[in-house]
Design brief:
By secondary structure, this protein is α+β, with helices and mostly antiparallel strands. The protein has two domains: 123 residues, 3-Layer(aba) Sandwich (Aminopeptidase); 171 residues, Aminopeptidase (3-Layer(aba) Sandwich). The protein contains twelve helices and 13 strands. Strands 1, 2, 3, 4, 5, 6, 7, 8, 9, 10, 11, 12 and 13 form a 13-stranded mixed sheet that branches. Helix 2 runs antiparallel to helix 7 and helix 6 packs antiparallel against helix 7. The mean pLDDT is 94.
């Protein structure tokens, strides 16, 4: 009988060597995981499970619950596990059960992961639960310039033309520390304008770390009016997999009428096409809802993907004990929030 060998390792260059053997994205790399701790807290770790010389990799953030127990989550973005392509569904379920046993022995209570909308799109586990939350949108970058313009909704075309007519220019820029601080100011103003939750107010330290550790894998597109940066968007780029993803962006309040964000998205899509990327993942609405943000992104492409998360209760007894300790109401107990015992903690932070 085959036995799964499971390890919990540090996130470093050795982790990146393992990741390079798979179809990965920037969210799986050590630099992203280490930078993410600025906003997510915890400590980055990697789970490597090997079965018959085939592996599954789980990039996680370890968060302490008390001196004995901890849980695991994924970073902001679309991480998810990386699989050996030859693993069958039965193999994967066998590995997941062995991973559960291993994590239980190490003091883990639960495992939560945001799944990658492209890399993990066909994964349907029976050990644990993959929950679908909603839709995201992606632009096929193998299409021609003409095809991209045709799939751009009329109101977005008008916005792009207006922006150009009003003298707005754009620049493809390196995400240097100086530009990261300019971006941070624009982003913070936007988050205030849309009354975003406190979690989304990423501070200067986060953008500073991104500029230092991931500069070569980030694309900054900035819109200028009379030499003033009025809007800017940050994209992740993974040349190995051909995946671009919109990460964060914003527009100064006094210049929203110029619609620079539409021009920026148009230019980023053009850059991806010209640089032979396969897909630009735009993401979805807030909380994967079909809201105004989702409709805005749909104006550039109607190709929809599913956003899913993976949940695994590792230690059922401890999980139920922790949930009971915070005395949730009936409505809260039926919530799909995971892990439930962190629900009130998040509400208090908000």
């Amino acid at each position: 009988m085959n036995k799964t060998h499971v390890e919990l390792i540090d996130i470093d260059e050795n982790w990146d060597k393992e990741v390079s053997n798979y179809n990965f994205d920037i969210y799986h790399l050590s630099a992203w995981l280490n930078t993410a701790t600025v906003i997510d807290g915890g400590k980055p770790k990697g789970i490597i499970a090997q079965y018959e010389n085939k592996k599954i990799l789980f990039p996680i953030i370890v968060r302490n619950i008390d001196n004995e127990y901890w849980d695991a989550t994924s970073t902001y973005g679309y991480g998810g596990p990386l699989f050996d392509k030859t693993l069958t569904n039965n193999d994967i379920d066998t590995i997941l059960e062995d991973v559960r046993v291993f994590l239980h022995q190490k003091g883990c209570v639960s495992l939560f992961m945001r799944l990658h909308t492209i890399i993990n799109k066909d994964w349907l586990p029976t050990v644990g639960t993959a929950l679908t939350h909603g839709l995201t949108l992606a632009s096929d970058l193998t299409k021609s310039e003409d095809e991209h313009w045709k799939e751009t909704q009329n109101q977005h075309r008008r916005g792009i033309k207006k922006s150009l007519k009003m003298g707005v220019t754009t620049a493809i820029e390196t995400f240097t520390v100086e530009r990261a601080m300019v971006f941070s100011n624009i982003y913070q103003e936007t988050m205030k304008s849309v009354n975003a939750g406190q979690y989304y107010f990423f501070n200067d330290d986060y953008f500073y770390d991104l500029s230092k550790s991931l500069q070569d894998r980030l694309l900054l597109v900035t819109a200028y009016k009379d030499d003033l940066a009025i809007a800017s968007s940050l994209y992740t780029t993974c040349e190995e997999s051909g995946i671009m993803q919109y990460h964060l962006g914003g527009t100064l309040d006094d210049h929203r009428n110029l619609q620079p964000s539409k021009l920026i998205t148009h230019i980023a899509r053009e850059w991806g096409r010209q640089n032979n990327y396969k897909v630009l993942h735009l993401g979805g609405g807030v909380g994967a809802k079909l809201d105004a943000l989702y409709q805005y992104k749909k104006g550039f492409s109607s190709q929809e993907l599913l956003f899913k998360t993976y949940r695994l209760v590792v230690n059922t007894d401890k999980y139920e004990e922790l949930v009971a300790d915070i005395e949730l109401g009936e409505d809260e107990l039926s919530s799909d929030y995971f892990p439930l015992y962190r629900k009130k903690m998040v509400q208090e932070n908000a």
